[in-house]
């Protein structure tokens, strides 16, 4: 999740993403001043966050949160596990994850 998003943002030359980031919390920190986007407003390129079902919204680490990049049609590009290959998957429905929010670069 976080590493995939960091690589995409680095390739797109988004300021603040030239150095490696390894956690969802770091991505949240770097995007905190970006525009918050509701589920119904998500567009391709938005950064999408999920939290593990039953967890709070703090994303303290240890796999309690997840991040991806919206690609359109209600889908995102991310990897659902540290050893899994990145893939396109639905934003709204995930077995163990709940939509937390999305951010758009201003």
Distance from N terminus to C terminus (CA atoms, Å) equals: 22 Å
The total strand number stands at: 6
Mean pLDDT: 84
What share of the residues does DSSP label as strand, in percent? Answer: 25-35%
What is the number of helices? 2
Q: How helical, in percent, are the residues?
A: 10-25%
Tell me the Rg in angstroms: 12 Å
What does the largest sheet look like?
A: 6 strands, antiparallel
Series of H and E elements? HHEEEEEE
What are the segments in which pLDDT stays under 50 over at least 5 consecutive residues?
none
Protein structure class: alpha+beta
Biggest sheet strand line-up: 1-6-2-3-4-5
Shape: globular
Molecular structure report:
The chain is an alpha+beta fold. Helix content is 16%, strand content 31%. It has 2 helices and 6 strands. It has a 6-stranded antiparallel β-sheet, with helices on one face. Strand 3 and strand 4 (75-78) form a beta hairpin. The protein is globular, with a radius of gyration of 12 Å. The mean pLDDT is 84.
Gist?
The chain has 106 residues and is of the alpha+beta class.
Topology, pairings included?
Elements: H1 2-11, H2 24-30, E1 35-37, E2 47-52, E3 65-72, E4 75-78, E5 87-90, E6 97-104
Antiparallel strand pairs: 1-6, 2-3, 2-6, 3-4, 4-5
Name the descriptors:
single chain, 106 residues, alpha+beta, 6-stranded antiparallel sheet, 2 helices, 6 strands, 31% strand, globular
């Amino acid at each position: 999740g976080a590493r995939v998003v960091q690589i995409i943002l680095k390739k797109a030359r988004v300021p603040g993403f030239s150095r490696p980031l390894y956690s969802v919390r770091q991505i949240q920190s770097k995007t905190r001043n970006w525009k918050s986007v509701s589920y119904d407003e998500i567009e391709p390129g938005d950064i999408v966050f999920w939290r593990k079902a039953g967890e709070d919204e703090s994303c303290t680490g240890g796999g309690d949160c997840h991040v991806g990049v919206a690609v359109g049609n209600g889908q995102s590009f991310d990897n659902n596990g540290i050893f899994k290959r990145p893939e396109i998957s639905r934003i709204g429905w995930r077995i163990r994850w709940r939509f937390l929010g999305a951010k758009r670069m201003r």
